[in-house]
Amino acid sequence: MSEQTLQVSVRALVGFSVFPPDILPISRSLMEQGRDAHLARQQESLARSEAMLTWAQTMDGLAVRVSGRMDLFDDSKSPPVIEEIKLSPIEAPTAPAPEHLLQAVCYGFMLCERDGLDRVDIKVCYVTREGQITAAFLERFDKARLDAAFLDLLRPYVAWQKRLLAHVTARDDSLRTLPFPYAAYRPRQREMAKQAYTAISRKRRLFAVMPTGTGKSAAVLYPALKALGQGLTKKIFCLTARGTQRIAMQQEIDRMIAQGLRLHALTLNAKESLCPMEQMRCHPDYCPRAKGHYLRQPDALMEALSTQVWGSAFIWEMSDKHQLCPFEFSLALCEIADVVICDYNYAFHPQVRLTRIFDSLRKLTLLVDEAHNLPDRARDMLSGSITISQLRAFRRESGKLHGRTSGIYKALSQFIKLLPQEEGADYTPVQTGITSLLDALGTGYTPGVMHLVRDLVSLGSALTRAQEALDDYVIMNDAEATKGGLTVLNLNPAPHLFEVTRRLSGCVFYSATLQPLSAMRLLLGGEMEDACLSLPSPFPEEHLLTLHMPLNTRYAAREASLMPAAQAILALFSAHPGKMIAYFPSFAYLRAVGEVLEGLAPDLPLNIQQPGMDEGSRIQFLDAFLQDDAPVLGLCVLGGVFSEGVDLPGKALTAVAVIGVGLPQVNEQNNRYRARMEEAMGDGFGFAYRYPGMHKVLQAAGRIIRSETDRGVLLLLDDRYAQADYQALLPSHITLNRVSSIEEITQSARRFFAQD
């Protein structure tokens, strides 16, 4: 079939025009029961199951191909019988649901077309999970009636698709002549763009180190869009770890639109951030937007086609105008968007992944920003846990609302009895208990139920994966009666990341801190055939002075390190009072050094990061660096919101001190991760501790030099920077200049800044 052939399944064709009107909670249990019901009914029937039918023709100038499988087909009868199987509701229906009947009608039409029949019998059968029939509806359809019903479904679908194809034609025309969004490429930026295009055209992965200033957003987006216009991919996902990182990609899209690009770009935000209800409860009995949402959505989608950028403000405006659920409307837009900017979760999380996109469209391209964050995020996505205290707290609330004799309360009590389990126990009862508890939770609402459901589903899925890949998971039990629980911990995300990306049309993983590249390629699911590219910093090396003062900052020596760390920070700040940030491995260390600094210099203009700062507090913190030239010394944590994804150019930041090497906390979970990485990839300590630690260090260091004219000093306080394993992770533009005293820090910094 040609590229312009419109291919659609029978289910999707019917679902375009005929559908339940309301947003209803998705029950995985019912989905499983439905699959079991199909199998049970098919196994007991003598008719053929899953017989394939295909119809292809031209409608309104567009080649169309419709296909699907009949649940049961009995050609021994005259006329032949087509049976559609559906899971029976608790109360047996008195008539077939229109969408169920029409699926069978489509098969009847296609069968008559293929075999030259003039009539068929259509049967819609509702059965229990065990295959017992609760209701069956048999009706004879002649060819004329089948033709009319099928064409009534096909015409509006084709009209909508022609509208979308017209946009694709206009988009591709604009892409053919679209210039690079800047007057010239930055040094090595063109090489990155070529490598990204090659990865997409060859359906491979690319792993790239792109230091600050290389123009990474334009370097990966522009070639991806060119590939989109050439049909090498059908949709581009720009994946980020933080909301702030989406801004740069959106700015590049806006710039290209101003230069003539025609496309639809969606920013997909989390459901919780979009929900207008005081308490998120996706049910038509509670949320007026959920009731009749799908009846109102088509008009909103049609209206959206006249707008190119579908950002948060647009989603809110359209959702209010048409009284839609903003998140569900976003998901519908996601299906027709050319570019989707969103969190990692929507591509990689087993429960959150956009199956409606990734399971139906293989020609997808992923652009993964700040990819050094993905391994830890993926491990979290693949893990699951629940605690007895969490379950008891929810049971207490449900008891107040529904009573202690309610099904929810009893199901919670029964599940709590299953925890904790002994190490190595049979976890089948736990998985069965999760299913039963999820069913019970759906019978009544309790505040916080969405979070509990999410945790239960994650735990159940992680248990299933752990049984399939024993080496890559560990099941950890806490046997303490009151605070116990169950944790399924992923130890190796690489196989999952490989599976998600292996059939896509190119994936570009890029970051300023993706060292060591060969090891990160393995951890991110890459293969030897996948390319690695490391670009040097585009800025003059003499614009950055890196000072290294050996200091033992390990936990056992932490108390003794407080005074010298504070003195070193104060020496750098005093040498050139301006805008400076000192980064610490923990809030506890930060507070301890902060107290020493206040004792040494009571008038020091400190700006201290606090745990759990809201958006307003974060903006206020950054304003101290951006609004004026007044000196300020910020104290922040490594890996926090102020060490990645914030831009402090020019005089907004001229010095950074990093205390320690950023190693994650030593605990049982990280040690298990270390052991697994040692087995699977070697250098277990590197994967579990050194690499993620140094990624945090280099991200913090990258806050200083943000443009060609920026100059600044980086102070590294730890003796481990002298070790070869740590020095190997430093990029070429960071050259260590060892200082052995506080006075040397002051003198070196003053000489450097005197060159301004």
The backbone outline, from C-alpha atoms, is globular
CATH architecture of one domain: 3-Layer(aba) Sandwich
**Which sheet architecture does the biggest sheet show?**
8 strands, parallel
What CATH calls the topology of one domain is Rossmann fold
Contiguous runs where pLDDT drops below 50 for at least 5 residues: none
Quickly give the structural class: alpha/beta
What is the highest CATH level, the class of one domain? Alpha Beta
**Tally of strands:** 24
Number of helices: 27
Percent of residues in helices: 40-55%
Rg computed from alpha carbons, rounded to a whole number of angstroms: 30 Å
Key structural traits:
single chain; 756 residues; alpha/beta; Lambda Exonuclease, Chain A; Rossmann fold
Please outline the helices and strands.
Elements (H helix, E strand, L loop, with lengths): L5 E4 H8 L10 H17 L3 E12 L2 E13 L6 E7 L10 H18 L3 E9 L5 E10 H34 L12 H13 L3 E5 L6 H14 L5 E6 L5 H13 L6 E3 L3 H4 L18 H12 L4 E2 L1 H11 L3 H11 L2 E5 L1 H4 L6 H4 L5 E5 L5 H9 L1 E4 H15 L4 H11 L10 H14 L7 H20 L4 E6 L6 E6 L3 H8 L5 E5 L5 H7 L7 E4 L9 E6 L8 H18 L3 E6 L2 H14 L5 E3 L6 H12 L5 E6 L17 E5 L8 H13 L3 H18 L10 E6 L6 H4 L8 E3 L3 H12 L3
Parallel strand pairs: 1-3, 4-5, 7-16, 7-17, 8-11, 8-12, 9-10, 9-11, 12-16, 18-23, 18-24, 19-21, 19-22, 20-21, 22-23
Antiparallel strand pairs: 2-3, 3-4, 5-6, 13-15, 14-15
